[in-house]
Design a protein that fits this description.
Bound molecules: zinc ion
Strand order of the largest sheet: 8-5-4-1-17-18
Distance between the termini: 24 Å
Number of strands: 28
Largest sheet: 6 strands, mixed
Structural class: alpha/beta
Strand content: 25-35%
Number of helices: 15
Radius of gyration: 24 Å
Helix content: 25-40%
């Protein structure tokens, strides 16, 4: 029973954070300059509007349905000192983070206490580094993408600059590193110019990935592995990212790339490292996995990877589902440390200098509670610099709501914010219906004044909206795709209502679909539909969208939502619409 419950919780989390919509590549220079103009206009109008205090409110970010684990078992006894069995062994400390998502200035609640912000994370990392001069800092993907304005409006360069400043040693890519396409990913790593931000120096530590192949050259887009010598001991790192990446990133983000089997890629490179005499091997896998606080009940792709990789692999760092993992599987230590800078993994190893093998390993997953810790002053100052740059845009008040708009779904599968966003999108493209993926709603809107920055945090992907036509039958088929044996993913809707029966088998759950006038939808008639470009491309497994006709790209989702809010009375009231009904 307990196991089932845990499996359900971890599964739910996977659903929530899989299938985000994603940033679209700025299509042309023209579009880029329009955006620049818009930014200027927004800065000019800022004086006229009332500003909110710079201290951002938490804005309902600390919720499980936004991919944040707010309730955590707290580690009572921190990591055991590595057994000092033999003092010729070399103790090495590995400090890892995953799924930061550029949350430089975002505080979240964990067990009712504030946690996170990278200046606090930095203070923790520096404190641990001081305990062992042989320390490596590791990032495990999704450092950028789906990030707040402080990072996103500056092309996520601030996040890279902070990782540079902290002295990160090695990293891999997550699915979100592909949000703006491989060219932008390589620019962030290697440096280069962007029309919005100008020249950027790039990342000053190596990024590796062994299973992402450029279809043109047949080679990996980044080096597959990297050997780092610590105190003379060679440690081999191999990077991989989940092969699900193409299903959770917009097609243009992964065009021309092939994502190959993780285990096959790891083992090929383990063989290569072995040839070079490297015996200590660590895999950086942006793949999901979860375990209980003491390593019990490990689940997820990481378990499968740990069971199938070469025995020379010692440790696997994971990511992607924002969960806790600290388990030993098939003699491999497998760790993941939640998300958003609210935790990190501290892995202690010892290497035998004679054999160059890792002879002991243990890990602690540490939550970065702010209580009792002083933020790192240098990083704090950097954050304040970035905040000042984006402040005129972020603090502009665009409307006000009397009640909170949350993405939390009721038992029917409908949320207030989901319906509201679907309404905004339908309104923007003047269609009969709109459908919105819940994974693309990244925060709630609190009662009171609504700033541009808050809306950005809700819809950080800048996904273009697509107008299309679909038949009544296609809409029925689309709604059926909300259920699969492994997940439930309730689209948020506008312009129609429907009922569904949870007792019916998957594929037969839709009972009736009604138009606003109360009549049934006509399976043979064509209707106009709005969805974002991620869904339009069949994202989240909603493949029926790929059969839609007459596709036309319109404004992006953020502008649609900002305009819709601006057009409401101040304050406005919006409550659950009862568009989705579960029949008993
Ligand atoms: Zn991910």
């Amino acid at each position: 029973m307990d196991w089932l419950k845990k499996a359900f919780i971890s599964l739910t989390l996977v659903i929530l954070i899989g299938g985000f919509g994603n940033l679209s590549v700025a299509a042309s220079n023209l579009k880029e300059s329009e955006h620049q103009d818009q930014m200027v206009r927004q800065s000019q109008s800022v004086d006229a509007s009332r500003q909110k205090p710079t201290e951002a409110k938490n804005q309902g970010l600390s919720k499980d349905y936004h991919g944040h684990k707010s309730n955590r078992p707290e580690t009572k006894n921190p990591k055991k000192k590595a057994p000092a069995a033999n003092n010729r062994f070399i103790p090495i400390q590995l400090l890892g983070i995953n799924d930061l998502h550029g949350q430089l200035n975002v505080t979240r609640n964990v067990n009712g206490k504030p946690a996170g912000r990278v200046d606090y994370l930095a203070a923790y990392l520096k404190q641990r580094e001081a305990e062992n001069k042989n320390t490596l800092l590791i990032q495990n993907g999704d450092m950028v993408g789906a990030s707040p304005p402080v990072s996103a409006l500056l092309q996520d360069e601030p996040t890279i600059e902070i990782l540079n400043k902290l002295g990160f040693d090695i990293g891999t890519v997550g699915n979100h590193e592909f949000d703006e396409g491989v060219m932008e990913l390589l620019r962030l790593i290697k440096g280069g110019s962007h029309p919005k931000t100008g020249k950027f120096a790039g990342s000053n530590f190596p990024w590796i990935v062994a299973n992402v192949i450029d279809e043109k050259t047949g080679k990996t887009i980044l080096p597959p592995y990297q050997v780092i010598k610590v105190n003379g001991m060679p440690i081999g790192f191999i990077g991989v990212v989940t092969t699900e990446t193409p299903t959770v990133v917009i097609p243009s983000g992964v065009a021309g790339l092939k994502f190959t089997d993780e285990v096959e890629a790891i083992n090929r490179n383990v063989a290569e490292l072995k040839k070079q005499g490297v015996k200590s091997i660590i895999v950086l896998a942006h793949n999901p996995g979860t375990s209980g606080p003491n390593g019990e009940n490990p689940t997820g792709q990481l378990v499968d990877i740990a069971n199938r990789v070469d025995d020379e692999v010692d440790i696997i760092f994971g990511g992607h589902n924002h969960a806790h993992m600290n388990a030993t599987i098939n003699n491999k230590l497998v760790v993941q440390s939640y998300s958003y800078g609210t935790a990190f993994s501290d892995v202690d190893i010892e290497i035998d200098p004679k054999t160059k093998e890792i002879v002991s390993k243990s890990a602690e997953i540490v939550t970065t509670f702010q209580e009792g810790m002083k933020p790192d002053p240098e990083i704090k100052q950097m954050i304040e610099g970035y905040e000042a740059k984006v402040e005129p845009i972020v603090n502009r008040v665009i409307g006000s709501t009397a009640e909170s708009l949350t993405a939390k779904q009721n038992e029917n599968g409908e949320s207030v914010l989901g319906s509201f966003i679907a309404d905004a999108q339908r309104n923007a493209l003047k269609t009969e219906f709109a459908f919105m993926n819940p994974g693309g709603i990244r925060a709630d809107i609190d009662p009171g004044e609504i700033t541009w920055g808050e809306v950005y945090t809700v819809q950080p992907f800048n996904n273009d909206l697509v107008k299309m036509t679909m038949t009544g039958q296609q809409i029925r088929d689309l709604l059926k795709q909300q259920w699969s044996p492994t997940k439930t993913n309730m689209l948020q809707i506008s312009g129609l209502t429907y009922s569904w029966d949870a007792n019916k088998p998957i594929g037969q759950r839709i009972v009736s679909i009604k138009l606003p006038d109360g009549t049934e939808i006509d399976p043979n008639k064509s209707y106009t539909v709005t969805a974002n470009i991620f869904l339009s491309g069949g994202g989240d497994g909603f493949t029926v969208f790929t059969q839609a006709q007459n596709k036309e790209v319109g404004p992006n989702d953020l502008d649609a939502l900002v305009n819709f809010i601006s057009a409401q009375p101040k304050p406005f009231t919006y409550r659950i619409q009862n568009r989705i009904q579960k029949v008993q």
